[in-house]
Amino acid sequence: YSIIRLEDYRPTPYAIPRLAMTFELHPEKTCVRNEMHIEPKESAGEKPALILNGEGLKLLSVELNGSLLLSDDYHVDDKHLTIPHPPEQAFTLTITTEINPTANTRLEGLYRTSNTYCTQCEAEGFRRITYFYDRPDCLSVYDVRLEAPVTGNPHLLSNGNLIDSGALTEKRDGSDWHFAQWHDPHPKPAYLFACVAGDLARIEDSFTTSSGREVNLHIYVEHGKEDRVSYAMDALKRSMRWDEEVYGREYDLDLFQIVAVSDFNMGAMENKGLNIFNDKYVLAKPDTATDTDYALIEAIIAHEYFHNWTGNRITCRDWFQLCLKEGLTVFRDQEFSSDMRSRAVKRIEDTRQLRSRQFPEDGGPLAHPVRPESYSEINNFYTATVYEKGAELCRMIKAILGRDAFSNGLDLYFERHDGEAATIEDFLKAFEDASGKDLSQFSLWYSQAGTPDVAVTSTYNAKHKELTLAVEQSCPATPGQPTKRAMHIPVRFGLIGKNGQEVSFTNTRGGDIDLHGMEGILHIRERKQSFVLEGVESPALPSLLRGFSAPVRLRSNLTDDDILHLMQHDSDSFNRWEASQYLLIRTLIRKSEQDNPIEVNQRDMTLIEALGKVIFDPQLDMAFRAEILAIPSETDIAREIGRNVDPDAIHHGRETFRQSLAERLQTQLRKLYHSLQQHGPYQPDAEGSGRRALRNRVLDLLVMLPDKSGIELAQIQFNTATNMTDRFAALASLTHHGKDAAKPLLTSFYEQFKDDALVIDKWLSLQATSPKSDCLATVQSLLDHPSFSLNNPNRTRALIGAFAMSNACQFNRADGKGYRLVADIILELDDKNPQTAARLLNNFRSWRVLEEGRQAKARTELERIATANPLSKDVADIVNRCLH
Ligand code: DPP
Ligand code: ZN
């Protein structure tokens, strides 16, 4: 497969400023007429060929300025349509193609989902609809006419504003047809095109922008799901208001539409004025959705809406710049959620997520820079690195520039590039120009892969009242990048004294440090560098990397006792959590290495007591206490061990520690559990979800108690729950701890929700993530369950994705059967839906950190996949990188 390189970027020789499309929708034979106005760009000499992208299309005709072209005048292969000698002046090219939406199981381009026509064009789906410059730097104004039978398709939707609609005068195939004519005034790249036709329910609302524009808001869902839309609608309105207030960005059309569909490869898509969502991220009511679902809906609704400015108004010049829209938009949605909920808790969740998804990617065979320099299949670069690490880079720019200069920089970026397809260089230049700061060293974050390592040695000199922070940075080799240059790493820090109070410092020397009251930011720029803090009156511990100010691995010379002190006293709550994580991981690693992890020594007891102090502190936010109680996952522990990993030992050590925690703290845990009972109706807000999270984490410990009292509590909770969060948490605790009590409850849960696919996904995932050894057989039998289908990406992810991603000890079974199961599914799925198959394959990325036996089993399966024929470009790319 060919490799596409950033350095080979060339603008197109022609512009397509506008096009008019007509869709005659038919389940198997949709006819697409695409009339493009094409202009040669200024260039001297002979006009180059016009080469348009197109895949899987049946070409019906090509007309140039209204006359049919003969097949001598153009050339078609399986990827392109080429006109070797186009006219020298602007011309109209009309291409008519036929496509089969029903046969489209890839879910790219135009396809059918539950009898609805829908599209997904990012990244390269438009070329499966018509021949075009299917690349983000070709911006065009779209006029779209949809024609379809009235029956089955009362709604005909596309981007922009509805201009006209009505009945077609003649019947077609004996039925009544109608049409809708859409005009999108904003020039856009093809990946933002969308159309939808079908019989859906419409929920309406409206929003008045700050300048007084009235915007109609329409959310379309399957009939019968109307009562699950209110939270998404509310989140949309809050997002629109927030983008005005925080970024000064108003919505720019009279209509904003969201369509929820049940077959979708990704989470959602920001098509201009017509977002299409995986229904999982729209539909919610208390008895079917959990608090986590609500929070994700809020975040993803916001994310796609925010793309209207960061992605749509300013788009990407090429797909190498994907982080330009995704990193920035994730940063914006994270900030939005922080403003809607608890900022500290949101930061903890995002950091946890980054470490568990992005760090392993950055530390394994799939590592790539936030802005990759080459790819063979762009769909494989919608990654945690591009999205989440990309967001961290925006957060660091803000930390380096300060709030005001950051905001000015963004304003300048919008001012300069509105209506354009931009690059990371454009983005950074706007911040440099607005702030006068030099970001050239910082820009290495976009081109160097790998998680930097920062080691800090802190020494206090009582005589001079100075604290010295000696810092060393390094970055491990990653594929194609054996050596790295030193980066600009902003490390936010404060000082905590022996009495638990913050300690101030007056002056600094030895390096660039910003001071903000009792806090500072170290600007690490050298490989080795020492910062001296002056005027430090008493010995103090540095509280480093507050708020996870840079996506690095931090090491320091602080002792476990020092960290324990920070866990109890740090004025920065994020770093209190960080300290608890550090100590827990160290303990859990130790447990995984012990022959008898059940023994509780003095160190364990000290940690358990310290954790108790936080968990039972009523002054602290409940969501924060729940985060402290969320013991690092088995994957997190494996990542920290880093080599020769034995997932069974990790599992055993972790369970044993949790059991000790439950036993030692049981009296208080029980009391806490009962005190957190819900009063009043369910609210998916920060307070309510924080309380439930804490209570359910407590329950998950109580279930481990040998006296079975916890099991009883879980049974009662399951039966009396008034919402899905509590019902599901009780079921999860019983299932994962392998309690017999789980079986009848799993059955009754299924009976109650069997017609509700999104709830059944939870039921599938729950069984697929059981750490017990019968899990494999359960997953195998669920493959044949009537509720399961490999044709639906949500079902596939719920069962196989959850097994491979969130069941460390069963996916990594020593006998290799976990790998074999997942590999079989990947091979079966590859032909139908390569994008989803490649996603599943990503779960093999950390195979080299395992102990030898498992490595060998994983290799066997990877090699089996690699040699399969045929193999999609998507899967071939991932498997080859995993093996090399
Ligand atoms: N551009 C889409 C997003 O919002 C891709 N799924 O992330
Ligand atoms: Zn996005």
Automatic annotation (TrEMBL):
Which parts of the sequence belong to the Peptidase M1 alanyl aminopeptidase C-terminal domain? Answer: 560-884
Q: What is its EC number?
A: 3.4.11.2
Where does the Peptidase M1 alanyl aminopeptidase Ig-like fold domain lie?
450-556
Entry's CDD domains?
A: M1_APN
Pfam families listed in its UniProt record: DUF3458 (PF11940), DUF3458_C (PF17432), Peptidase_M1 (PF01433), Peptidase_M1_N (PF17900)
Q: Which cofactor does it need?
A: Zn(2+)
Keyword annotations for this protein, in alphabetical order, are:
Aminopeptidase, Hydrolase, Metal-binding, Metalloprotease, Protease, Zinc
The residues covered by the Aminopeptidase N-like N-terminal domain are 78-192
The enzyme's first-digit EC class, named in words, is hydrolase
GO process terms (BP): proteolysis
Tell me what reaction this enzyme catalyses: Release of an N-terminal amino acid, Xaa-|-Yaa- from a peptide, amide or arylamide. Xaa is preferably Ala, but may be most amino acids including Pro (slow action). When a terminal hydrophobic residue is followed by a prolyl residue, the two may be released as an intact Xaa-Pro dipeptide
Which molecular function GO terms apply here? alanyl aminopeptidase activity; metallopeptidase activity; zinc ion binding
Peptidase M1 membrane alanine aminopeptidase domain boundaries: 231-442
Return the similarity comment.
Answer: Belongs to the peptidase M1 family.
Can you say what this protein is called? Aminopeptidase N
Its organism's taxonomic lineage begins at: Bacteria, Pseudomonadati, Pseudomonadota, Alphaproteobacteria, Hyphomicrobiales
